[in-house]
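anyone else get weird line breaks when pasting these?? whatever heres mine. first is seq + tokens for prot A
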Amino acid sequence: NEDVHAIITADGWVKRIRQSNEVGSTRVREGDSVRKAHAVSTLDSIVLFTNLGNMYVMKVLEFPASSGYGVPIQK
């Protein structure tokens, strides 16, 4: 159980960082930006909706813990 920020970028990349880290200084790909950063626990789940009406549930623990760019949400 860890308090983290679940980050989703405008280009659809996801990752998680510790809440002690500054969200504004997290690395994103060139031309990308942080769209949403939610303070959550690694025990929580995130629900994602597509523009086609599909719903996906993903555990925050499955988000890559990364100081890099993260991974594309399609994976």
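and prot B, same format (seq, then tokens)
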Amino acid sequence: MQNYPNPFNPSTTIRFTIPSNSFVRLIVYDITGKVVNEIVNGYLEPGVHSVEWSGTDTNGIDVSSGVYLSLIHIWRC
């Protein structure tokens, strides 16, 4: 699903659906492919999930304005 608001300031909500119990990683990248932050890393139950990204990197530092990509990896259990 599309994150909202987009563009965001100062945070954005990322929604996604998983069909069954799964291990999920949601990672935000910058346009060079560098990992900016890992928002989800764990087991989730089936259904619709919403997570908020506050626009910070893994150290909690605000990132600069620009284009960011999110990628969700799902491993069914």
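btw re prot B: The two ends are 22 Å apart (CA to CA). DSSP finds no helices and five strands in the chain.
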